[in-house]
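Predict the holo structure. Ligand: IPE.
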Amino acid sequence: MNTLDDIKGSNLPRHIAIIMDGNGRWAKQKGKLRIFGHENGVGTAKRTVESCVKLNIEYLTLYTFSTENWKRPKLEVDTLMNILVSSLRKELKTFVKNNVRLNTIGDISLLPKKAKRELAEVMEKTKENKGLTLTLALNYGAREELKKAVQTIAGKVKNNIISPENIDETIINNHLYTHNLPDVDLLIRTSGEHRISNFLLWQIAYAELYFIAVFWPDFREHHLVEAIKNYQNRERRFGKTSEQLN
Ligand code: IPE
Ligand code: IPE
Ligand code: MG
């Protein structure tokens, strides 16, 4: 089995993003309620953060709740929010100990008050941390993000702050939730689904995609290592030829 030592050192992804999928099916397989899967998924998230810390990964972004996930049964949505609050409360000390800075993307203004309060507290208490930046995507949808950016930029054009000819990729990027994050290098999705589900559309333009047919609660450090090892063996050409790179 792969260990962290197999991949340490050079050519690590700077920014890993994960679509943590399969909690519900994992629970169903065990004859349990979907919620049981979400509760178990938290442990995987915690361990993944710790593995990334050990590897000195700079950015880890976790798809935690999408703009579309509000359509789920109210009990499931409420439980997910409660799990978020209790996990943040419980893991603050893990973040502090590991020099992790908490960040969010998505419109968190629509989250329950107690979730906003907990997020604000953990972000405040970790804001000076210089290790891993852990970004939770909460009420995040890439199309909503792009819509919001277009609205803001259009407002600036209207008020003569920006002229249309000057709108470039940097300006667009600066108006996204991810303005302070680098592009994603490696995107992992668990559960066997091969889709993006409205996650980071702009930011994954040149990400390496990695799909694994393991439900999120079963995702272990060796799976992460395998994903990174796979990434390290790919040639990222960014439109160039292989010869140009060498
Ligand atoms: C991912 O697991 C967690 C969230 C989307 C919040 P799912 O709940 O989507 O689990 P499956 O995909 O139904 O198995
Ligand atoms: C994506 O998973 C959202 C999160 C992991 C938070 P979903 O389970 O919601 O995606 P779909 O519905 O299968 O595309
Ligand atoms: Mg799912």
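The mean pLDDT is 98. Residues 19-21, 63-66, 69, 193, 195, 197 surround IPE (ligand 2) (CB under 6 Å).
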